[in-house]
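MODEL INPUT / OUTPUT PAIR
PAIR INDEX: 1
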Amino acid sequence: MPPCIHACPNNNDIRGVLVAIGQREKFGRTLEEAYREAWRLLTETNPLPAVCGRVCPHPCEEACNRTALEGAANINGVERFLGDKALAENWPLLKKTEEKRTEKIAVIGSGPAGLSCAYQLARRGYPVTIFEAFSKPGGMLRYGIPAYRLPREILDREIQRILDLGVELRLNCAVGKDISYEDLRKEYAAIFVGIGAHKGKLLGIEGEDAPNVISGQEFLNLVNSGRPPDVGDKVLVVGGGDTAIDAARVSKRLGAAEVTIVYRRTIAEMPAIKEEVEEAQKEGIRLEFLAAPVSFLRNGDRASGMRCIRMELGEPDESGRRRPVPVKGSEFDIEATMVIAAISQEPDFTGLEHLRDGKSWIKIDEKGRTGIEKTYAGGDAIELGIATMAIAQGRHAADTIHEQITGEKAERPVEMPVIKSDRLKLSYYEKAERNTGRQLPVEERFGRGLDVEVNQTMTEEQVLAESARCMSCGLCFLCGSCWMYCQVSAIKKSPVKGEPYSFELKYCDGCKKCAEECPCGYIEMHL
């Protein structure tokens, strides 16, 4: 198992995608055939590559063995390029079968979890209906992520491609309000719940009832719904996650002269995407670390600022991060025309209270099943996480639904040891610097609307170079090293391009040279 796939919450076949492009000539593929094969492998698990190529924090890259040389492969950039190419050339998503099934499936919520579940079931021939409470689909992808990170045209087109598989979408239809959950249970063979977590939390301190104090999720929802609030000149954002960074950068685009993020730990503990934090700093957003809100300053009914207290880091808490502890007598004030509390969010269970399992929101087992008959769930209504995790949960639930309807056992990931860089022959690989897409200069990001995309897609030349950097950890990529070093001709090369080498062990003398010279750690010798 390569570390990239192991680190990906959705277990996308990252190695397969990069090798298909980067090693295409060894496998006898044209460039177009290589792109199509990479697309097939990627969309087997992820129907939203152009979206994820923009918003995923790419934990796969943190695990990449290429970091032992000069830097991780730009997996996220290649995924985005493939997604954009597929949209530009109108590549359809591929079905698993042309068979039409009669068992109807209901999906509540059109966020990444619901879209993933609908996709995996529709491509198996099931009639799927998505019930969406909002006026447009996308869930947190639309209402929680700014357009400068995820252009709405990209989101709309990737969603439409899923709908083109025959999925029905009912907008402005809140289950539990506009239609009862029991009615769905009567009509549908299975229900997947992916309602997301659209309800933001405030700080729980004195004075937060002021009209210019708002949760991060409500703020982004208003902006992304086309109803941005007047933020004034000085905006304070409380929190250290992606919502806090997004809210701060959006405030800057709405005209705020001063934007400050208040975070109770240090930059090392911030859970936000590292690149997004760096971009916020480039845009002039101030980061006030080791500080926490105590109360609000008021001018009439409005908040005029926030009183904070200095913090210091103590012992680690349950998350593994050091617990912030207040420093006595260290209070200080920060002026503000708007305060955005981006500390957390939760699902809105109105009309769906029976799905909630105490304070734990919705609970599922390892196959995506809830404790309610015919009901499955995934996404932020289970636990707050990244879009890729939600896509995985939707996919696994679809596998289980198909398994329980048909009796066909779904394929589950096989546990395999993860290959690390110490198993590779690093000297085989030539050093090659990482490729990245162009970024819009800071001075060009403002005054042109909220949907000016900051990060650009890599060029084809960059993608080809980046794919070639993949070391194919743990899987043969036909380099020929084993064949060249075998002196007893125990390894046979196929005359057919792309076919793997064969081993005739009756000739093998156990010298282990093939295993020692295999650059990607594919060959193991056990005497």
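PAIR INDEX: 2
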Amino acid sequence: MPMNDLDPATPVIVGVGQASERIGDPGYQGLSPVGLAAAAARRALEDTGADPAAAAAAVDTAAGIRQFEISFPGAEAPLGRSDNYPRSVAARIGADPQRAILEVVGGQGPQHLVNELAADIARGGCRAALAFGSEAVSTVQAMAQSPDPPDFSERVGGSLDDRGLGLDGLISHRQATHGITDAPGQYALFENARRARLGRTREDYAAGMGALFAPFTRIAAANPHAAAPVERSAAELVAPTERNRPIADPYTRYVVARDKVNQGAAVLVASVAAARELGVPKERWVFLHGHADLRERDLMQRADLSRSPAAVMAAEHALEVAGIGAADLSALDLYSCFPIAVTNVADALGLAADDPRGLTLAGGLPFFGGAGNNYAMHAVAEAVHSARAVPGGYCFVGANGGFLSKYSAGVYSTAPTGWRTDRSAELQREIDSWEAPEEAAEPEGWARVETYTVKHGRGGERTGVVVGRLEADGRRFPAVTEGDDEVLGLLSEGEPVGARVYVRTSDSGSRVTTTPARMAGPHSAPHASPHDARG
């Protein structure tokens, strides 16, 4: 489509920016989250190639990503925070937006905001929207215990569309009772289910995780904004050591998201009319060719714990809206908080770990840094740079939130295109209609392990977590095991998936063991022989 034929309301990305600092590096300032986001926003304004002050004055919507420190019920910011994060950042750059948004929790947030704000612009709801996010986790942790900690509190007031935490459905009471709340533990359940489905040994699967992420470390090592710019081999990533301690089987520390970062990123989206008025050179324009936003079923309602079909549907639909296939992409960034977040989508799109295009642009959450909910804003910034470097090429960003729970996707290119609507709402209704396994409220009796993990504490303590199915009727249940060496041995060797266990429920929740005789209490079942444990 010729540039001159574009509808003036067509959304276009006109500027991106990133900022970062590492404690101990020259020039370290100890910036607050607001300070980091403002620094990134200034660079986004400069990146337009237009007058930064005029671009800031044109911003009528400021949308901020929620920091990790305010992403959980009852959470408090140790060094204080702004009462209106979007407006604090806007004020630092000379913007006075009509609307301010604070997005819900989740790594999908940055790409979702770009999709949403672009749609708003296409409908005439706004003309120039600035999306941004930041984390100063490393600085906050380092300074919180100092004798004279800084105060990051700001009182700016003003209207704010605070969308809340958005955690509904991510963690149920039964999951919490059985220790299925932390991200490594939940993702490990999915990872082990995938390993078992593929029929791979623990050793082979670990090697595969290392091979997947080793190229990510090379990208991170060359990225000036990376929190851990160190290239590592595939073997080094998965070999347990004192520094690379086990977290939750099959994960060691090096292959899980790194949250100790000081990073910020910003994206400026404007209408074609606004871009022209500001004088943004056309070679800076990048168009959103495809987009999708979908939500997966809640954990215990998923038919197959080794996959997230909703994420795959989002990725495939974004490509469909763009009118291309995965083979047409010139660059990709697949959200990488844990290996399965990458392989879940890569498997479906036919992307190998050694794809010559690479599977990350920024370097991935374990190595570039898992900037709270904001990693994908950095990925979008990198995708815009990549699209400009390869005019007419297509760059894909996949952003994951929750526990393989929410997925937002975008396809970027300098090739001009009008706004394209998507069918995410229709696809979401399809997902919501899928049949869900029945859950047993008080499971009792023989069962089979559907998936599992063993979580490792810093002091060497271990806790087994199991999702199982009752042999009698196939109902699903969560359970734990603590201090039972026999069950921990079962979960730590060979193939536990499909193994036979006995589950019993009390007021404190459900517990599994290898034989009913090992269950304490007046209702213990008759002794069964040890070979029953594996069926």
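PAIR 2 NOTE: The longest strand covers residues 445-456.
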